[in-house]
Amino acid sequence: MQVEFDDGTLLLRNAPDDVPYGEWDDRVDEYRTRAYRYRALLEWAGKWTDGNEQATLQEGFAHTLEDTARAYPDLDLTQALHIEPRDYQQAALDAWIDHDRRGSVVLPTGSGKTFLGLQAIADAGVSTLVVTPTIDLMNQWHATLTNAFGDQLTEPVGVLGGGSHDVTAITVTTYDSAYRYVNEYGDQFGLLVVDEEHHLPAPTYRQIPR
Amino acid sequence: MIIAPYRLGLTATYERPDGKHELLEDLLGPVVYRKDVDELAGEYLSEYETIHMSVDLTADEREEYDEEYQIYRDYVDSHEFDLWKEDGYAEFLKRTSYDPQGRRALIAKQRAERIARTAEKKLDTLDNLLKRHHDDRTIIFTANNDFAYDISRSSSSPVSLTRPRPTNAPKSSTASGREYSMLVTSQVLDEGIDVPAANVGIILSGRASKRQYAQRLGRILRPTDDRQPARLYEIITEDTMETYVSQRRRRGWVPVLTADLARSRTTDETITPLFIDPDEERYQQTARELIQLFEAHLGEPKGDLEDAIDELTIADTDYKIVQGLAKLLKDECEFEVVASVEPREIRRRLFEKANERYPIVRQPTLGEDTQKLEVYSAVADDLGVSLEECYRGMYADLEDNKRLVRIGTRTADQYASDDDTSTSTTNLTGSSDAEYEHTGLTVDWLVTRYNLALAQAVLYDATEMRIRVWDHFGTVFSYVKLFGLMHRIYPIDSDGERVANTDQAAGYEAVLDGPASLFSKSQKYGIRMANFLPALPLCDRWEMVGEILVDETTGETRQFALDPTEDLDSHYSAGDQFDSDVERTLADKWERANTDWKLVREDDVFDLGAEVMIPDFAIEHPDGRRAILEIVGFWTPEYLDAKLEKIRKVEADNFVLAVSEQLDCASEEFGSAADRVLWFKTGIHVYDVVDLVEQYATGMSQSEEQA
């Protein structure tokens, strides 16, 4: 089968009937699923590789799966701020990595959540979309990301929103712009960082990560 | 909508009062790490800790807040101020000074802010905090005087109140006098109040305060002993301006009419745009005045045009209609920076030159600044432009100073070249449309375009659109594809009833939505449906029913039905009737040929899943037999591949093809249709086609019936 990114969803061409999460789309006579099932699909097919590890083949047979959905590059980045992570920041990062780089970190205001975000981006080593609730925060993130990674990137940190429309390997955006454009760019990022994530469950915003 | 396998959520306040944070685990993953303020205090947050407390508005407050805020937001959205930028907000304020609607918007904003700031429940929260800290020294900050009084009156503890005073007044000793354990102030600390050594600070603000502000307040706090850090509480009103985002903003790429200009009526079942009668004189009059206004401002600054429109708006009671019509005209205009030298360059040079002459400003210059002129002249000379060009060019890139360079098909240069004639037209009033036709924009065009825009505005919230068309299938489905809509297609008869197959079809019904509609109802594709709508009036007979979402949380919808009775006009192109000369020539030859078979243009729609294929012709015999003809003429290799791909998917025994011999392809590539191919050299002969059709046409012929 072939996994293809189609306008914010995943089109599963020639998928077997036992494909997980597949919903039959009678308009195209193929299975289709939400974009965020990408990783689970690869895991199911024994195709998921995490960082430098080899694909862990499932028991029995692995389904043949051709991944044409992924359009995001690997990045080799080190945050250049010369700040040592505090103990709890390191612990939070480790916990996130232990959970296969999926999850939420809850820390009080002013404890350096943005810095943790930088560490996560460097660790994941893939192109990243940072989503923030306001243009103010978007600008703050943009400045911090540029300081941390600017010299190592071939293109400047991208900004999507507030009148800008530049999408690059590391891009910051607002919830509003993400909602508008994510079906267009949803295949171009391997890491999604959501700042002030408690806004995310709003009816429209929750469609962004799906 | 994003595939990212790695996900990280960050927050200080994970739990939501509505319990919806449970969704986050599915969307981003579980909480992997959590540290509270208490756990970090001392070691990392030793100076003070900030505690955010949010209160809800009461139901009454909420209702009033939403109402006022919507007035403000709609106004701002409709004028596209970018409030996040400083000049955007200044622009808004400037406008409020002369635009009554703007003034109303400003008042609405202030009312909403006041509600958020003085929310009743804040006092309860404050009271609880004061009880908890009854033996601490507390300073309470509020941005509003009245509220400070309220607090001082309602609080059970002795409270000192400070008020703004002139900066030259002697600083009072009240604050540091320590007679009171509590201080309420509406003062921002820039003014340098002599602040007591408080260990608890409480900020009562309308919105989440800016980080620097909170930090500055935090620094004045001192812990009483080593074990207890100083505390700064920030009590904010939940879900007011800072989190509230206009729905219209969220949705629209390019809304034709913004939310405040849309006009519709909603009943229990339906939603209908409030169309205007295009023939009614007062609308014709308004449209005429507006077009004249735009013409008169060709070559002039955008700001002047906006002011003139506002004046007209004040004079006319139909605010929404005037602004709506003006918006449609603006969409047909082009505004450009007109300056002989790049404004940025002029500013840079002016700054440098001025800097040479006044290295440091110690005192504001009194009286007339005579040197200013010298600076401008010097820079103008350097740049080789006139003094006036330099002066006017300096800020030519501000939005208001951009020039109207094109209206419709008419550009400013043409305007300049026939200055004499246009002066005479603009002096005329009540003149006929003919005089304005040189812009391509007529009164009738504007009023009918307006009705279409009203209908489009309703469709922004559509979750699904059902259309029925009885002609122009090729045009309609090419627009479906262009706007990224997906479809389910059903052949229908002339009454609109569904029929078994395309041979019996008089028309087609299509249900339009988008890829993610498969998983849940979404108004995400509403804008695409709105963009598609103008394709429908290209048909002679059509019907449309939109499912319009009226309540996002409950998913409640209303129906919006539309058909040609509203006389909507399309500004989209119907395309050429024939794709190629080969088709046109065949149609011409068929006219003159002697055969009972009739050649019918684009009569069938093959549903190929993601796409449709609309063959060039159907060929029909009076006895009921029928075949479908596709001409494969001159195509680039890429187009040919795509075309062959489509042809192979067609499952119809009566599907025949005429293929050019000049194409680099072989019979096998036509799949099951390989036997039904007629190869042609330069033109197609009618009788060759007839022979092929005789062989493969399906349907009952009379002779067979008799036999």
Query: Segments of chain B where pLDDT lies below 50 for 5+ residues?
Result: 162-179, 188-194, 206-212, 242-254, 359-364, 414-437, 702-707
Number of DSSP E strands of chain B: 25
Assembly classification? heterodimer
> Kindly state the mean pLDDT of chain A as a whole number?
89
Could you report the average pLDDT of chain B, rounded to the nearest whole number? 76
Proportion of beta-strand residues of chain A = 15-25%
Give the uncertain stretches of chain A in residue-range form.
none
In total, the number of strands of chain A is 11
Explain what you see.
The complex is a heterodimer of chains A (210) and B (707). In chain A, the strands form 2 sheets. A 5-stranded mixed sheet of chain A has the order 3-4-2-1-5, with no helix packed on it. Helix content of chain A is 27%, strand content 22%. Chain A is globular. In chain A, strand 8 (158-161) and strand 9 (164-166) form a beta hairpin. Chain A is of the alpha/beta class and 210 residues long. With 707 residues, chain B is an alpha/beta fold. Chain B contains 24 helices and 25 strands. Chain B has a 6-stranded parallel sheet with strand order 3-8-7-4-6-5, with helices on both faces. A 5-stranded antiparallel sheet of chain B has the order 15-16-14-17-18, covered by helices on one side. Chain B has a 5-stranded mixed sheet with strand order 19-22-23-24-25, covered by helices on one side. In chain B, strand 20 and strand 21 (612-613) form a beta hairpin. In chain B, helix 3 (59-79) runs antiparallel to helix 5, helix 11 (302-315) packs antiparallel against helix 12 (319-331) and helix 18 runs antiparallel to helix 20. Chain B is extended and about 105 Å long. At the A-B interface, strand 2, strand 4, helix 1, helix 2 and strand 6 of A face strand 1, helix 1, strand 2, strand 3 and helix 9 of B.
